[in-house]
Amino acid sequence: MKETSIYVKKLIGIENLNNIKAEEILEQVSTNLYEKSNYQIRDNDIFDNLPIIIKDTILLIDFDTELNMNGILGFLENSTGLYLDDTMEALERIGATEDYEILREIKGIMLRYNLDTKKMRSNVNKGIEHEITNFLRTHGQEYHQMAEEISIAADDLYLYHNERNIFKNLTVYVDLNKDNLINEISK
């Protein structure tokens, strides 16, 4: 846990954890997550050992970033898509059940077409660096209908509905579990 604590400290500053609110923790993580010094945090050896609250926060920030920048298909085929199941579990833990159900539906659509995020990522990795392409060129025309079905399902995600905000859920979750985070880091 010692090495993990170093990464948590880079994200939020352990010495301040007792004195800051959940909103500030989320702000610190979102501000520091994409700093060069934190790139290693997604390495499995590090990420898998992070406190669950920090993992969930990272997963949901990455999910939101990908959705805003590249849409659901970009999320699924990017390295963040490799964490689809973890992202779904994070949504469930924070009480964002509608979005959890939508991702579960999307995963079901992919399974019907015998495609998963690992295969999608592998297809992306076969491309040429800086190549301009699209989903169908990367994965094949046989996935056109699947892409349409996923896009329709994704239209119901929080991003397109002002009455839902996963970051409100996440803030409550972090606030309710902050003592657990402090205890976990202190080990």
Automatic annotation (TrEMBL):
Organism the protein comes from: Clostridium omnivorum
Pfam families: DMP19 (PF14300)
Domain DNA mimic protein DMP19 C-terminal: 49-174
Protein name: DNA mimic protein DMP19 C-terminal domain-containing protein
Gene3D superfamilies linked: 1.20.1420.60
